[in-house]
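Re: weekly structure request thread

Next one in the queue (246 aa):
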Amino acid sequence: MEPAASDQLPSKRLSRWKQVAMIFAVFVVVYLAVAYLIVPHAWKMYVRHHPSLDDNPRVTETGDGHPGDPLNVGLIGTETEVKEIMQAAKWYAADPLGLKSDLKIGADTVLKRPYDEAPVSSLFLFGRKEDLAFEQPVGNNPRHRHHVRFWRSGKVDQDGRPLWVGSASYDKRVGLSHTTGQVTHHIAPDVDAERDHVLGTIEQTHGLTETYRVPGFHKNLEGRNGGGDPWYTDGDLWVGVIAAKQ
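Done, posted below.
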C-alpha cells in the first residue's frame, strides 16, 4: 500500500531543508577557510615577497639638506644581482666623484665626447649617500643621460634579499643650480618617464620574475629638487623582482 500524497509532503520539505542546511554548512566552512586561513596566509606570503614601503622616505636629500629627487623605482635582489642585471640592461656604473672625473666630464662636455661612466652628484637617504649609481649615455653628448641611484633599505623579501629603493631621472642639460649657483645637471620634470625607462630596459633582459606597483607612494605629486628643477609624478613606485640565482 503506497503512502498518501499528504504523507509525502513533510518528507519532501525535510529533504529540502537538509539540502539548504548542507549548502549553508559548506558555505560557512568555505568562508572560514578563506577568511581565516587562505587569505591571511596569502597576505603573509605577499608581504614577505613584497616588502612594505610605508615607513620609507619619499624624497632624497642633498648634502646641504635641500630636497633632492623623488624615489620612484625599486629592485629586489642581492647587490651582485642588481649590478649584473643593470650591466645586462646596458647601464654603466657611475665613477666616483673627484677632481679627475670632474675634469674629464668638463672636457667631454666642451668637446661633446661620450663619458659612459660619468659620476653623479651625491644624494642622501637613510642618512647616507647612494649605495649604487648607474647611468646610460644618450648619443655623444654628456649633457644628456639617463641615470638612477639606489639605496639598500632595511626591508628584505622571503629569501632574505634586500629591497633597493631608487631615484631615476633624466639629465636634459648642464647649467647652474638655482639654489647654490654650482654647475650641475638639470633634470627633465617627468620622472615617471625615466622610471618607466629604467624598468623597461631591465625587463628586456628577461631577468625579472615580476614587477609590481606601489600605488599612491607619493602624496605630493610635484616638487623641486636641490638644483631648483621642477618634477612631477603620478605617485606610483614600481619594483622589479630579480630572478634569484639557483
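The radius of gyration is 28 Å. The first helix runs from residue 5 to 49.
Next request, please.
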